[in-house]
Specification:
Number of domains: 2
Radius of gyration: 48 Å
Mean pLDDT: 87
Structural class: alpha+beta
Helix content: 25-40%
Distance between the termini: 189 Å
Strand order of the largest sheet: 2-1-7-6-5-4-3
CATH architecture of the largest domain: Roll
Number of helices: 15
Low-confidence stretches: 10-22
Shape: elongated
CATH class of the largest domain: Mainly Beta
Oligomer: single chain
CATH topology of the largest domain: FAS1 domain
Number of strands: 14
CATH superfamily of the largest domain: FAS1 domain
């Protein structure tokens, strides 16, 4: 081996020795893939409800109810914020009303009656079926109550059965009923009786009634009138001089009794508020009596006090006095 070859071999040995002693190269880490993002679930949109009126319009079972609501001009009310609970009669329910009733209710002159009936089907607030069955009654928008009862699993509003429940709307809820519910008839104020009937029914005037009968004036004072009667009490007659009343009730003194009684009657219906503005009044007898006010009290002919006023009769008014008025002879 020549010298050059020896040198090359030594260099190669040195290189391999250095390579063996050098640290191994660090491997680059393989990047992990990013996790796939799981999309958030999209919430289901809340159902969009129509208002009570639009719900009824969209449901073919309530065409008569819708027509009634329009005729009563309650559309805007039942489309307002509410909330309301409506017990809604079906078309069949309206058709079951007595013949001619619906047509009559839809006439302009019966609008208030129609309004009252419709408001009797409406309760303030959103009362779901689960709450309805826990009630015995509910106050309607009319102000009158409906009764609520559960019988054999069925719910009744008055006598109408609830056949469908919980139709939700944007401003309340509808429960469907199978009959129209009618509000209780307002008890008509009892018409007052005639002047004679009122006097007969009031024991304070038994002597006056006896005198009216004796003078044959009952028919007159039961007539159309109107009359204003200043009515003496039994005590007023009892205060007459002894024997005066007994004498007046005798048949031969009928004209004198008639004159005295007619002196207590004024033509027309003169209420107390008008009496105090008068200085005198002309009676049916044709004679006047004076009217004066002292210390807030009303006196006839200076001494006879009006103690009760404005007892209204069908044919006039009665004011009660504490003494008998006697006409001039």
């Amino acid at each position: 081996m020549n010298r050059l070859t020896t040198v090359v071999s030594l260099l190669l040995v040195a290189v391999f020795a250095l390579a063996a002693c050098a640290p191994a190269p660090t491997a680059e880490p393989t990047p992990m893939p990013e996790p796939t993002a799981i999309p958030e679930p999209t919430p289901e949109p809340a159902p969009e409800f129509l208002d009570i009126v639009d719900t009824a319009v969209a449901d073919g079972r309530f065409t008569t109810l819708v027509a009634a609501v329009q005729a009563a001009e309650l559309v805007d009310t039942l489309k307002s914020e509410g909330p309301f609970t409506v017990f809604a009669p079906t078309d069949d329910a309206f058709a079951a009303l007595p013949e001619g009733t619906l047509e009559s209710l839809l006439l302009p002159e019966n609008k208030q009656t129609l309004i009252d009936i419709l408001l009797y089907h409406v309760v303030a607030g959103k009362v779901m079926a689960a709450d309805v069955v826990g009630l015995e009654s509910a106050t309607t928008a009319l102000g009158a109550d409906v009764s609520i009862k559960v019988d054999m699993g069925n719910v009744y509003i008055n006598d109408a059965q609830v056949i469908i429940t919980d139709i939700e709307t944007s401003n309340g809820v509808i429960h469907v009923i199978d009959a129209v519910i009618l509000p209780p008839a307002e008890e008509a104020a009892e018409a007052p009786g005639t002047i004679v009937e009122i006097a007969v029914a009031d024991e304070r005037f038994s002597t006056l009634v006896a005198a009216v009968l004796a003078a044959d004036l009952a028919e007159t004072l039961s007539g159309e009138g109107p009359f204003t009667v200043f009515a003496p009490t039994n005590d007023a007659f009892a205060a007459l001089p002894a024997g005066t009343l007994d004498s007046l009730l005798l048949p031969e003194n009928k004209q004198a009794l008639t004159d005295i009684l007619l002196y207590h009657v004024v033509s027309g219906k003169v209420m107390a508020a008008d009496v105090v503005g008068l200085a005198s009044a002309t009676t049916v007898l044709g004679q006047d009596f004076t009217i004066t006010i002292r210390d807030g009290k009303v006196f006839l002919n200076d001494t006879i006090e009006v103690i009760i006023t404005d007892i209204e009769a069908s044919n006039g008014v009665i004011h009660v006095i504490d003494a008998v008025l006697l006409p001039a002879k």
